[in-house]
Amino acid sequence: MTTTTLPATDEVVTHARVQDVALPGGAGTFALITLDNGFDHTKPNSFGPQGLAELAGVLDELQRRAEAGEIVGVGITGKPFIFAVGADLTGVPAIATREQALEIARLGHETFQKISDLPVPTFAFVNGASMGGGVEIALYADHRTISSGVPAYATPECFLGLVPGWGGTYLLPHLIGVENALTLIVANPLANNKMINGKQAFELGVADELIEPVTFLEDSIAFAAKVIRGEESPARTAVDTSAQAWDGAVEAARQQVLAKTGGSAPAPLRALDLVQAARTASREEAFEAENEALADLLMTDELRSGLYAFDLVQKRAKRPAGAPDKSLARPVTKVGIVGAGLMASQMALLFARRLEVPVVLTDLDQDRVDKGVQYVHDEVDKLLAKGRVNPDKANRLKGLVTGSVDKAAFGDADFVIEAVFEEMGVKQKVFAEVEQVVSPECVLATNTSSLSITEMAEGLQHPERVVGFHFFNPVAVMPLLEIIRGDATDDATLATAFATGKGLKKTSILVKNSPSFVVNRLLGRFMGEAGRIADEGTPFEVVEKAFAGVTPMPPFMLISLVGPAIALHNSETLHGAFPDRFYVSPNLAKVVEAKIPSFYGSDGALDPAVLDLFEPAAEPVELTEEQVRTRALEALADETRRMLDEGVVADPRDIDLAMITGAGFPFWNGGVTPLLDRTGIAERVTGQRFLERGAASVPQA
């Protein structure tokens, strides 16, 4: 391509470096391309216009050499630990027209196709992380090897709002079968961007050989030599391309996508259309259909929202707004946890694994303490069985976690966190007791989900060392950590909390001391509105279906996950603070009083016992799904604006980061505020947008 309409960007160019390798056994000269952007593994290889142009030039030269008989094969591999992670998406915000979007789509196909066009056998040696276009470039080779040490293999495009548009929707199903391909293309991205490892990828059929990492490149070249000499011809499972099998798999996937997204995410549906057409389409037709799909999707607000969300979790999460200078943080060499229940035990395991410091659990009696410690030991044994830790590490982790019924065990702790009953008096009593045995500098952290940090610190000798440190359940999985500054909390305590959160590999957000903080406040308003709508007469099923594609799960399923009692407590706390806006459902209170743990039975259906308890409205008002969704989103818009006006967080981006990492809100909505802007609800309810145009949407021409 001699001319381009693509805008100039600060692309980190992935270079295609070629070296000649003498194949073993006298098989001839082999040209090995190494993809390398010049940085270490923390900045993975990606493909932008300049990198693609360089790769195309290298492949043209190899075409000439192959035709001249100078080389007998070509291989592609990556720099240490990284193969390639796909298209360089940093330039997408600069793409202003569909023509530019179509050009970048075609550039990828044209470049990668040059691999297939080479007149000698071609190989991809997948040595490290491989995603998106990194998966696709390997599909153009005749043969592939993959390292058992590959930590992440995925086609995450639908998670962001795109499709695998450089050959993936055609080449993958024809290589590994339509069902396996749909797992990679649609199911895994919509399962919160699930990744698989090298062994799992090999089992799906994406590679001919699974090779250990220590001798990966050497063994891959030996494999290539055998293939070129005709000594090895890898067998592959035949793909069923019958209409019944192919279309049936696509239709089943379509129903799953609609159930999960409510049709609000265009990318996975477009991907299914491409995969379905790939059964009978020629390669050229399929690739051009991918080009058109990419051009359309690159110009959608959903894709721009997905990239906005991606930027939040990749960049803003690493630089928390408002955090004090990290030099103020004090070292944490021992952690104390008050309580030994499930949440406390999960925290103990996390602190031990991430910080590798002694952790001591305390509780009211030895039996509870023993159960908490045993939980940690059992979880470590599970990690050992899965190969996540070796025996030495397992023994070390178990040794780090101990228990006691005496808080004096916290005497030399630098950081003590409470995870006891969510009642202010109980927590104040716990902190008063802990303060008697710890040093004046020891941080006292609370895992409260809704109570005032300032009030909790009142009466202590050193209220300045009390800080909110709110995890989300399950502790090991959910990335978010809300760090709450009380009125007396000093900078050293806050800095220590942020440093500890970083050590735990959590996404930490600074939150002003306020009722239920960020996630639980917004979820409380949302679930309260859903509960009010159900109490007024809209059937449960209608309320639940209304939020597909907006929230990670329906509201009553979410209430069941956190527990009706906890949801009720959060509602009551918020109603106490803001009685005009937060609704406490009397029917939810009945469910809690009846000690029913979930709105859903073991069969996945709504529990009849719950339905029997619900008292119908005297004059029922039944809303449509669209009306339910609109009303709940209007409530979210109103509460979000109020939180920003109150300074609960520094910026709308912190609201979105919190809802994505703490509540699992989808990337294609950008969390919350881009969706409220895109639907016009933000301006209708609050009189203004949350984000400037173009921040999480297509810039206006």
Overview of this protein structure:
By secondary structure, the protein is of the alpha/beta class. 48% of the residues lie in helices and 12% in strands. It contains 28 helices and 17 strands. It has an eight-stranded mixed sheet. Helix 17 links the parallel strand 14 (443-446) and strand 15. Helix 1 runs parallel beside helix 2 (98-117), helix 6 packs antiparallel against helix 10 (266-277) and helix 21 packs across helix 22. The longest helix has 22 residues, at 625-646.
Short structural description:
Helices cover 48% and strands 12% of the residues.
Helix content: 40-55%
User: Uncertain runs with pLDDT below 50, 5 residues or more?
Assistant: none
Q: Measure the end-to-end span.
A: 26 Å
Shape: globular
Name the assembly state.
Answer: single chain
Strand segment count:
17
- Note the beta-strand portion: 5-15%
Strand order of the largest sheet: 12-11-10-13-14-15-16-17
Main sheet makeup: 8 strands, mixed
**Class of secondary structure makeup:** alpha/beta
Specify Rg, calculated over alpha carbons. 28 Å
Total count of helical runs of at least 4 residues: 28
Average residue pLDDT: 95
